């Protein structure tokens, strides 16, 4: 019979504190970023990766979501430090531009590498 006060331990290949893989060569899924893994956020980041910056309406139309959906997802990406939001005017019309930060670009590249590795495409 086990003592109910004994702590539950993580498997030997998992860091008990972080839940991350504790040994090199572990499954590539550990390289996925949970923030950008959601399909809409992944699509936003992929769109922004192709340019220095993009207007909000362009991203909305490209990703095929509503203003409110894009706004919520961009807020999540901005909070994570992956997207920078800049507001300004073109003439008298307000505009919002979105751009990936350096961290956002790096995380996106790592995430894509992990996806390729999972799919069997290696690191290329």
Q: Quick gist of this model?
A:
By secondary structure, the chain is of the alpha+beta class.
Textual characterization of the structure:
It is elongated, with a radius of gyration of 19 Å. The protein has helices at 34-37, 39-49, 56-63, 67-79, 102-119; strands at 54-55, 83-90, 93-100. It has five helices and three strands; from the N terminus they run H-H-E-H-H-E-E-H. Helices cover 44% and strands 15% of the residues. Strand 2 and strand 3 (93-100) form a beta hairpin. The protein has a three-stranded antiparallel β-sheet. With 124 residues, it is α+β, with helices and mostly antiparallel strands. Mean pLDDT is 85; it is low at 4-11. Helix 2 crosses helix 3 (56-63).
Rg computed from alpha carbons, rounded to a whole number of angstroms: 19 Å
- Average per-residue pLDDT, rounded, comes to 85
- Estimated structural class: alpha+beta
* Helix-strand topology string: HHEHHEEH
- Alpha plus pi helix count: 5
β-sheet strand percentage: 5-15%
Helical percentage = 40-55%
Shape: elongated
Instruction: Report the end-to-end length measured between terminal Cα atoms.
Output: 51 Å
Main β-sheet description? 3 strands, antiparallel
Strand order, largest beta sheet: 1-3-2
Q: Residue ranges: pLDDT <50 for 5 or more in a row?
A: 4-11
Q: How many runs of DSSP E, i.e. beta strands?
A: 3
């Amino acid at each position: 019979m086990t003592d109910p006060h004994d702590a539950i331990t993580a498997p030997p290949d998992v860091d008990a504190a972080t839940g991350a893989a504790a040994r090199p060569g572990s499954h590539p899924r550990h390289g996925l970023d949970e923030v950008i893994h959601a399909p809409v956020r992944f699509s936003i980041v992929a769109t922004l990766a192709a340019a220095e910056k993009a207007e909000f309406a362009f991203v909305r139309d490209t990703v095929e979501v509503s203003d409110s959906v894009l706004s919520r997802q961009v807020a999540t990406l901005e909070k994570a430090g992956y997207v920078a939001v800049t507001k300004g005017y073109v003439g008298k019309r307000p505009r919002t531009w979105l751009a990936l930060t350096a961290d956002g670009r790096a995380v996106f590249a790592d995430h894509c590498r992990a996806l390729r590795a999972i799919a069997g495409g290696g690191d290329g």
